Amino acid sequence: MNVSDIIIDFLVGQNVSKVFLMTGGHVAFMLDHLYGREDIGYVCVSHEQAASMAADGYSRIRPDSIGVSIATSGPGATNLLTGIGCSWFDSIPSLHLTGQVNTNESKGDKPVRQIGFQEMDIVDMAKPITKWAATVDAPENILWYLEKAVHVAKSGRPGPVLLDIPMNFQRQDVDFDSLPHYVPEEDAVAPASGLERGIAECAALLAKAERPAILAGGGVRNGQATAELRRLAEKLNAPVCLSMNGIDAFPHDHPNYGGFIGVYGNRGGNLTLANSDLIIAVGSRLDSRQTGVDTGKFARFAKKVVVDIDPGEIGSRFTPDVAVHADSKDFLTGLLDAVGDGCRCADEWLNRVRQWREAYPPCPPQYCGTEVLNPYMFMGALSEQLGPDDTVALDTGQNMVWGTQVIHPRQNIRMWTAGGMSPMGYSFPAAIGARLAREKGRAISIIGDGGMQINVQELETIARHNLALTVFVVNNSGLGLIRQFQDDYLGSRHVAATEPQGFTSPDFVAIAEAYGVKALRISDPAGLEAGIRESLAHDGPVLVDVQVDTTCNVIPKALMGHPMEDQFPYIDEQEFLDQMIVEPLDPASYRL
């Protein structure tokens, strides 16, 4: 049996319906074996970066499968790295296959830079951002490498893997029945430790707590533990706050939803954590965007239970009161069984959380009801029109924060961003991957005018496949989050961030139409709802150029060194003090 047929059959066996690729000389033999296959398809992108990002988006939607990208050696392989980084930092399993020169053209250990054309040591380049990267050492070992790659990608803390396959191996025949199979090593995944003890200690803390809160991160979604999270919140009568990577792990229309937290979080969410006496953080690494740089100011009076699949993440920034190295689903399931009725919170605490959410809505008052279209208006109107099975991929920069602050995932709506790597241009190809992984609903990319120019070439991909995908370009004629940073800390010196010298935007409508994609422009509040409705109703690809106020900032925002619960622009000092159940930090010690 041919090695390339074995590769394709293996992918079919992993429930892979589409692979994302760009062709090249060193993968041509492998790709030739896709010809005539009806059990698997492929999507040719216009840049390999889009292939690895699409694979990332595909994997987020299809936990029963795995996202796959394929690229040729040299520049094709190196172009995959940014998308691979997205999967690495956000713990997304994905498989990346690269072609390599024939083994007789390999430089091996010779002290030369290159022998074969486009020869590249992609394995060593990829190792820091993959769980495993390797070059297949013999054609008869192909199945062993494939089986190990997927096992490693999905076990423990998930992540990307890469296999480099020499071109001569791809066209070789082997005896399939005699191929060796991979048997997982006992130490391939560090076993969970202290689960039962951690559950018992957490249950004991819950029995004493009056104001507990659950903080859910991306590990809850990745661990397919959203149902257990909801049941626990309802059983405890406790609020659930969400990190950016966990933003769709709990329905935002649920009465126990406490809000999005962190530097750019909702005021209500940050007030909830600040005033709690117990935080159960599940699947969240509690990075500085969530706690602030000074962890001593974060939820100062709360006991902290930290649950993570990766033991290296626990205690990396502060020492929790209870550390549990475990899968999120195992922990939540065990805690559900361990807690009794005595752990249920009084209604007073949850009512206070709801009051904060109502008092401090996502759209700041100064941005509501204005005559100039601003991104808060847009995000709110889009959120209202989302269907129950829609998928929203957010890019990076201000558009990412506005979307996370305002859009409310509910029912089966999926929403995420590449939170750890956070590259410009990610959301467009990620939405392509999601669109092809999910039959129901519509795929939506929310992206800035800067990010759109990174992967604008993929308009050709969505046009060719006639995908039901809407790209909303939040166009503020600049790199807005950098401009805001320059305003806050660099004396408003807008180097390389705004027009005319540092940044300009093209006519996105004209570009989309040139690719054969339906396009429209929204520039004032009067046409906002109708424009969104028209784009979402279109049976095919659409680009919408949403021209927003160029001066609109992301607010609220916790400034560096300040406590998360007192974000800028500051509310009245007495009003802030009235919200604090616990002893607050003196505002005079940090307010400007």
Layout of SSEs?
Blueprint: H1 3-13, E1 18-21, H2 28-32, E2 41-44, H3 48-61, E3 67-71, H4 75-78, H5 81-90, E4 94-100, H6 122-126, E5 132-135, H7 142-154, E6 160-166, H8 167-170, H9 195-208, E7 212-216, H10 218-222, H11 226-236, E8 240-242, E9 257-260, H12 267-275, E10 278-282, H13 288-291, E11 303-308, E12 322-325, H14 328-338, H15 347-359, H16 375-385, E13 391-394, H17 398-406, E14 414-417, H18 427-437, E15 443-448, H19 449-452, H20 459-465, E16 469-475, H21 480-489, H22 508-514, E17 518-522, H23 528-537, E18 542-547, H24 573-579
Parallel strand pairs: 1-2, 1-3, 3-4, 4-6, 5-6, 7-8, 7-10, 8-9, 10-11, 11-12, 13-14, 13-15, 15-16, 16-18, 17-18
Pfam families: TPP_enzyme_C, TPP_enzyme_M, TPP_enzyme_N
Protein name: Acetolactate synthase
Family: Belongs to the TPP enzyme family.
Name the CATH architecture of the largest domain.
3-Layer(aba) Sandwich
> Into which percentage range does the β-strand content fall?
15-25%
CATH fold description of the largest domain = Rossmann fold
Total strand count, please? 18
Q: Write out the CATH superfamily name of the largest domain.
A: Thiamin diphosphate (ThDP)-binding fold, Pyr/PP domains
